[in-house]
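I have a small job for you when you get a moment. Can you supply me with one protein entry, sequence and fold together? It will help me judge whether the discrete encoding reads sensibly. Write everything out right here, beneath this request:
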Amino acid sequence: MNTFEKIYEVVKSIPKGKVATYGQVALLAGNPHWARVVGYALHNNPDPQTIPCHRVVNREGRVAPNYAFGSGEVQRRLLEAEGVVFEQDGRVDMAKYCMKL
């Protein structure tokens, strides 16, 4: 399995209504230094119906301003549709919604 495939497998494992950080995905994919690679892989997501890249946020719980399939608002709407609630400052409550390792 190549690096992107490993990343996509991890992202597929993020439960609906939960999020993971780029760093968590990198760690679970086999290298904690791959956070930027995770972002690149998700930007090139070949199958957004199967690989829910909208569930990956930064370590502060913020959505990507240049979300691969639209703006950060698109990512936010997808997460809200799964029950993820955003704080007033636009961040996901990581204590509540972050996938546990």
Residues 3-12 form the longest helix (10 residues). The first strand starts at residue 20 and ends at 21. The chain has five helices and two strands. The mean pLDDT is 93.
